[in-house]
Amino acid sequence: MFQSFDDISNPACGAPHAALLRSELQRRGLDGFLIPRADAHQGEYVPPCDCRLQWLTGFTGSAGMAAVLADEAAVFVDGRYTIQVRDQVDMAIFPAQHLIEEPVSKWLAARLIPGQKLGIDAMLHTVNDVKKLRAVCEAAGAELVLLEDNPIDAVWADRPDAPLGAVRLHGVEKAGRSAEDKLAEIQKSIADKKADLAVLTQPDSIAWLLNIRGSDVSHTPLPLSFATVPAEGKPTLFIDGRKLSNSVRDALSAITDIAEPMGLMPHLASLGSDGKRVMIDPALAGEAIAGTVAAAGGVLVEAQDPVLLPKAVKNPVEIEGARAAHVRDGVAVVRFLAWFDQVAPAGNLDEIGAAEKLEQFRRETGLLKEISFDTIAGAGPNGAICHYRVSRTSNRTIPAGKPFLIDSGAQYEDGTTDITRTLAVGPMSDEMKRHYTLVLKGHIAISTARFPEGTTGAQLDTLARIDLWKAGLDFDHGTGHGIGSYLSVHEGPQRIAKTGSTPLKPGMILSNEPGYYPAGEYGIRLENLELVAEPRDIPGGERPMMGFETITLAPFDRRLIDVRLLSNAERTWLDGYHIRVRQTLLPHLDDAVCKWLEEATEPL
To answer: Is 526 exposed, middle or buried (0-12, 13-18, 19+ CB in 10 A)?
Structure first.
């Protein structure tokens, strides 16, 4: 199994670990310390050796922060984790705060006093974050102390070793472009910014640029590394050489110099002393990187990571790979759905059993490399926890009379998938059907949207919520995130959300996943992946409009739909989508599953 169901959270760790940290802070002359859920690359998935927030508090979510002062502490999470954090963290030691409504900066501003010293690990906070923290400290008369090492590492007795996952080449037949071609494009964009070189801190940017993949973090094929890319000449890849076989090293040496990670900071200092203009992304790069360049005399050029947009816009080979991956994945998901309908009504199936079976069907494709994240299999109230992770302690039997939410994905060499379905088990109440249908209406609104070039995800986000809003309901997460090509299942900068400021471009792939989560009851989320299509003329229109091509292939549960709430256009879309699912997948299924799929995709 790629997924573990072990209990990795321990609320009881809060008190003793906070005491250890406070003792270390006192030894260093610090009055407080901030602990983000981050590693040196600011990635969503971090290796066990960098899970400092989890070690300290017990919280395992993908975003968060803890603040520890001499006599007070708190943990900060966003709306996805407001339920989860209370189950995983000792609230007496780390009271939970909302990361957006009660941000760390506001909390600190009310507590810091003149003369205090607040420490941070300068590699784990971005340049932008440090600017805000400095302002808070200066306003309070306190000092922000940038540390070169982390106090937690000094007291974490059994801290795991750094990962050494082998690096693999990602062939042009899957990547669609050679590394040399990509480098030429990125180097031009660096020169256009009047920079001498760029520092890449994101492992997925480096993996895409050099056509490599790795296995240093769970579920995402990343080799943890840094790189510097000059406007002219060879880049330098900073990576632990133990990850490179002789053949991989030879192939990479043709396009990049290779150095050990410990050489990064001296390299940056030498660039600074030479007066180089060094491009960094202030939203992604650790303050330590910028500070090293600036302290040595270099000129910082703040700009977005030059790889983000080219990586987000998939080339024709990546697009065809994504389509192929979704047909393959659709077969596995439909086999699971048919099996679920047969097994779940007996009342013996639990969340772990469902997650294991879905992974089994994906493995039987013969091409599964990994799952793209821990499957979210939420029965009853667990479904109301947006990013719920089932463990052997939390595992629930799937009950009749409540929707069952299952959100999962796969990593294939030709594409990354992410799909959520909410399933009926036994009779569903009218209220459940109403909630499901309101979410479905938002999903269809995104799928059928037409929009001009320059449109951002923020402008589309309202479409997914408007019917929920009319009913006085909402959901506390974005409507959609970008998807990588055999890379991160959560890829930026594209997203459909209130904060989605990047214009959508043809070739981008995004999720479409509105939801609704009555706390303590159940969860509903419906997710497909959407490919942004080229602009097309609309009869009678004045300008071409972009739209979405839905590439996920699996039926929605018709038993949860209140057809009376759907417009004729919405019914037509759903029936048409189900016809495409049926026609595409039937040739790949056995007779029993074919029969199930034909019934599941009958017209409304």
So the answer is: buried
